[in-house]
UniProtKB/TrEMBL annotation:
Record InterPro entries: Glu/Leu/Phe/Val/Trp_DH_C (IPR006096), NAD(P)-bd_dom_sf (IPR036291)
Gene Ontology biological-process annotations: amino acid metabolic process
GO molecular function, one term: oxidoreductase activity
Species name: Caldanaerobacter subterraneus subsp. tengcongensis (strain DSM 15242 / JCM 11007 / NBRC 100824 / MB4) (Thermoanaerobacter tengcongensis)
Pfam families: ELFV_dehydrog
UniProt protein name: Glutamate/phenylalanine/leucine/valine/L-tryptophan dehydrogenase C-terminal domain-containing protein
Glutamate/phenylalanine/leucine/valine/L-tryptophan dehydrogenase C-terminal domain sequence ranges: 2-60
Highest rank taxon of the organism: Bacteria
Length: 62
């Protein structure tokens, strides 16, 4: 993204953004894990399938 838009971020800012994304991803997976009483690996798979289905529906393929 930096190169596409000509943005230049410091290493600290990149690490902050990366941490935010990783924490949010973990929280999403953990929520599904608790909701359906499955392990984190299965929850991550469930989330990925859900996202693909939503993208297909948005494009009219579903």
């Amino acid at each position: 993204m930096q190169n596409l838009y000509g943005f230049y971020w410091t290493e600290e800012e990149i690490l902050k953004r990366e941490e935010k994304i990783m924490v949010e991803a973990f929280n999403n997976v953990y929520e599904i894990s608790c909701q359906y009483n499955v392990n984190l690996r299965t929850a991550a798979y469930m989330l990925s399938v859900k996202r693909v289905a939503e993208a297909m529906k948005a494009k009219g393929w579903y």
